[in-house]
Amino acid sequence: MALSERLRAIISMIPGNKCTADIGTDHGFVPISVVSEGIAEHAIASDVRKGPLTRAEAHIREAGLSDRIDCRLGDGLSVLAPGEAEVIVIAGMGGMLMTRILGEAPKTARSARHLVLSPHRDEYELRTYLWDQGFVIEDETMVREDGKYYPVIRTRKAEEGEFSEREAREQPTAQELRFGPVLLRKRPAVFRDYLKEMYRKTEAEIRHLKAQEASASVEHALRKKMEELSAIQEALIPADPDRKLRIRKMTEEDLDALDELLADPDVMQYLEEPYNRAKAARFLKNAGLCDPPRIYAAEEDGRFAGYVIFHGYDEDSMEIGWVLRKEYWGRGIASSLTEMLLESTFSMEKDAVIECDPAQYATQHIALKYGFLREEDREGLAVYRLKRPQT
């Protein structure tokens, strides 16, 4: 029995257990595999349609496992009694349908030790539902099969007392709900490929929309695609766990820290005259809260260290840069942020550009350190460019 990459990924996420239930079993390959490989002692194969269940029964007989795998015809979790299955697997359908299946039998869903879910769309809605219902995402992976990407999510019910503490401490971000908290942290190669492909696709869709005649519907569609591009662009920026550095989208709560940064004459020496609070607020709105943003907050160990510049410079390049609080100068943080931005830029298959005042020697030093070449002077600024690696 040859298993697809997707089914193999699903099986790899199933921990050892007494009974695994595969909801929407289709050919029955998951229950056959978990029992024959010793992952589960017994299994339940269920499907809402008789045809797939009949095929599953035939495959189970051929494997000689009819005494250890029970086949059941029925919709969703209605085929299970609460506590009957330690692991429930649901795959091959959209996230919204999964939320319906789980929502129609909440007692059964919560009685399982683990849920292993592999939606082919609506992952945001599914992760939101899981959070709202008190489930904890333990692990995630992703596979590419037949030109499509499939996430696999393993979740469990939060233990008593765990969720209230976790809710206050670790409310998931929109990025975590959209792309997956574990995938964003682990950043496996297939996930990075997925982000790159989504970025190229969304950029092409935006160009197509901009070429159309203006209308309310086109404007709405363009705004949604710009929001998508913003989310993908942020997800493409890696973290630096060793230095506890993180680049994230700005929020309105960043105004106080940004105001303090931009009011510092030493910080603004090569930029502009120091800002007042009103000008800092306009800058935050126009550069940090737009889609996609032109600047992002830079944090070290959860503290606001300044902001990075990261936005389209021309069709083939991204402008990168950084403006840091004085206490973060001279500590190598600008170099680390540069490396993070370069990785993201090259994953978009674009060149990197740095603009700076010709007297801003620290910035020029970093540009030369990473191989940038001075391309030209434009409007009083030195322009450095680093070509993308050729593949």
Please provide a brief summary of the model.
The protein is α/β, with parallel strands linked by helices and 391 residues long.
Description:
With 391 residues, the protein is of the alpha/beta class. The protein folds into three domains: 5-179, Rossmann fold (3-Layer(aba) Sandwich); 187-236; 238-386, Aminopeptidase, CATH 3.40.630. Helix content is 41%, strand content 26%. It has 15 helices and 14 strands. A seven-stranded mixed beta sheet has the order 3-2-1-4-5-7-6, with helices on both faces. The protein has a seven-stranded mixed beta sheet with strand order 8-9-10-11-12-14-13, with helices on both faces. Strand 2, helix 3 (50-62) and strand 3 form a beta-alpha-beta unit. Helix 1 (5-12) crosses helix 2 (29-36), helix 4 packs parallel to helix 6 and helix 12 (255-262) crosses helix 13. The two termini are 37 Å apart. The mean pLDDT is 94.
CATH superfamily of the largest domain: Vaccinia Virus protein VP39
> What overall geometry do the principal axes of the alpha carbons give?
elongated
* Percentage of residues in strands: 25-35%
In total, the number of domains comes to 3
Helix content: 40-55%
Helices and strands, in N-to-C order?
HEHEHEEHHEHEEHHHHHEHHEEEHEHEE
Counting DSSP E segments of at least 2 residues, the number of strands comes to 14
CATH class of the largest domain: Alpha Beta
